[in-house]
Amino acid sequence: MTTTWHVHDDLLAAYVAGRLDAIVGASVEQHVARCAECRASTTPLVDPRLLARGWDGIRDAVESPALPLPVRLARRCGLPEPTAVLLAAATSLRTAWVVGAFLALSFAALAVVLAGGELLAPFLLVAPLVPVIGVAAAYGHQQDPLETLVVTAPYGRTRLILVRTVAVLASVLPFTVLLGLFLPGPAWLAAAWLGPAVALLPTLLALSSFVGPRVAVAVVALGWSAVVLFSLRGLPATWPVEATQQLVYLALAAMSLVVLAARSSRDRRIGAVL
Fold first, then answer.
1. Are 101 and 56 in a shared domain?
2. Where does the record place the Putative zinc-finger domain (predicted)?
């Protein structure tokens, strides 16, 4: 089809300046899209600086696309982009896991409230295990979508799992502490679960360096469940969060950190050789 008419210069200038209404502007645009002569006539009407900025924006969008929201949030917290990308890929930081953790904690706290504070087992069982399970989900050979990249990149596994551990704690600790404040009973119950959590997390990390996160989280979860259930052998129960037991948890955490540090040093030596 041959074009037999062309857009008037004044109308073309108004189109380039964006002064036309929607109907006339759409008509001119359809014609300009098909008419090479009218397209050429728009060139001197466009500000070269505006055109350059437009192409720069297109080039930036193609070469540097917008980062996903988790990566942007991590960057705003001061993390470098490589760390933010690896952190954002953690399964435990996705919406489904976070919502599931909040629901589990909420139901556990509700069970304690309905029992009038006489049965603390649900909350004491769930609260220390939520960050433990989150850390296990944050890094594992089968779950991690960036496992191939992590294997080939000069990025220590120990450093990665520690970064993701901090992220998991930041996502669940405030909510758990807030729920603890609403539990019936003495005020110290709001933070009593922190002792076991402080012990279970390093224990999980230390075990993961030997047997992997899946087996380690199963061992840790079964161990803590046994401790809580054992405390129920006689009612009223003596809950495993007394002052002397907190000292035991701190000692266990210290030993686990020593093992983790030794394993981390070993990984660095192996990485240097490779």
1. no
2. 10-39
- Together in a domain, 99 and 174: yes
Percent helix, strand, coil in the chain, to 5, is 75, 0, 25
Q: Could you tell me which residues come within 8 angstroms of residue 256 by beta carbon, excluding any fewer than 6 positions away? A: 199, 202, 203, 205, 206
Tell me what pLDDT residue 51 has.
Answer: 74
Average pLDDT, the chain: 76
Cβ atoms within 10 Å, residue 128: 27
- Tell me the C-alpha to C-alpha distance, in Å, between residue 233 and each of 151, 183, 209, 227, 236: 47, 22, 34, 11, 9
The length of the chain in residues reads 274
Considering its fold, how many domains does the chain have in total? 2
> Over 60: is that where the pLDDT of 147 sits?
no
Question: Please, which residues have CB within 8 angstroms of residue 128's CB and are 6 or more apart in sequence?
Answer: 193, 196, 197, 200, 224
**For residues 222 and 207, what is the distance between their CA atoms, to the nearest angstrom?**
14
Domain span at 74: 69-273
